[in-house]
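PUM-HD domain-containing protein (Ilex paraguariensis), 542 aa
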Amino acid sequence: MAAKTKKGNESTKRKRIAAAEGEGERAKPKKLKLPSNPVNKGLKKPYKLSKHQHESKPKFQKSETDKAKVEQPSKKERRLHAKELAEARKKKRKRHYTLEQELASLWEKMRLRNITKENRSKLVSEALKKMQGKIPEIASSHVSSRVLQTCVKYCSQDERDVVYKELQPHFLTLACNTYAVHLLTKMLDNASKEQLAEFTSSLHGHVATLLRHMVGSLVIEHAYKLGNATQKQALLMELYSTELQLFKDLVTTKEGSLVDIISKLRLQKASVLRHMASVLQPILEKGILDHSIIHRAMIEYFSIADKSSAADVIQQLSGPIIVRMIGSKDGSRIGMLCIKHGSAKERKKIIKGLKDHIGNIARDRFGSMVLVCILSIVDDTKLITKVVLRQLETILMELILDKDGRRPLLQLLHPNCPRYFSPDDLASLSLSIPSLCTKGDSEIGSDLGKQTSSSEVGEAGEEDRSGTDEILAEPDSSEGPEESPHTIEGGKKDPFVRRQELLITSGLAKSLIDACGEKAGELLRSNFGKDVIYEVVILSIY
């Protein structure tokens, strides 16, 4: 029994070994049989390939040129190639590209400072001959417009007339172009009276549209500044009413103010107000407020506006945007009206908007009057001290010696003195908007469009100095001077208390006394400084 079991185990082992060997044989890859080779017939062993047979050529072999390393172009060569491609693209895109290159080379010569007049005139004539018949097309180019400006500046009057006639049919199109606008302004600077009148006439019906354009407004402003009173009035009247915009004969009226025009032409006030609002509102939204023609139109708008319309415009102008307006006469008046009729919050916005420009505003002829108005009306003396007076103290000596810079200081030392302020300045301080006036204001302030007569102001040399004691002390009713006819209303605080806080409490009076003490000799020899040192001496006495 045991022997049978042993034989069975051995047979089982053999089967397992045989099975394992069979699997191994199946796992091994079959050897490939070499094809029969007639050369190797009769050989018992399979033949081997010789060495030269192993080194057969690959299917895709590189040529000698491909194997050689290709040299990369240098930076200079790449730059020149890119420049050539750019030139080719410009020639395809620009019709007069070759002409522009020729004009640019001439322009580099004609604009030199050390060139003689004869040589320059030859270069200008040559350039104009090349441009003849193509001026309207190339005037919009960045390069050609500069060449044309130089040619218009130095050419003869006959040549200038030829350029003017060629450009005349295209004035309105060129007025809205970024580069051609400078050529038009140069043409107006060198235009004759007849040409300026023709140009102003060609703008009829398009003034309001161009004023709403950022570039076109520059042309209208330039024509307005160069024109005479009649031409200015013609440009302005288009902004008043649709009838005046359509019918050219109506703008020849000699009436100055809008109120007089409405009464003479029997226009409807409500219609005029709506038209002006539709013209001015887009201008306010775009911020095109640098032009004096717009300032004049706003002054006239305030003269007929109702309470809500005027208050809405004041609210829109309250802020840093007012800085762009106060450089002109009418613009400074608008600034003063905004301060006078604005709320405390709007006044605060205006003063904070002036923060970084106080020095330049104080030295400006019209801007200084805005500071005078602020010092005379605004009750928030802490804000004025922080924003205005602290910056004035840093340039105090410079302001004392400046004709316009000293006026805010003189307003605090001697308010509304005709010796230091012209009748026109005092009239500007007294202006008010009719619809926003209270009864008390209307008795004192003059309405817009009305000028104060010089007889009310009096001569500057006849000013009575008996009332200098009001600077530091309350004026005595028995000995006090007569009140100035140009009293500025608007603030609720007592004027004496306001001046005391701005002069004494802020420390400005001490700074003035120290500055005048250090530079007394220089101030006494100065035409403008002597007035300040005189007022400071009166201040220190009382």
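The longest helix spans residues 2-27. The beta strands are 431-432, 446-447. ok done for today
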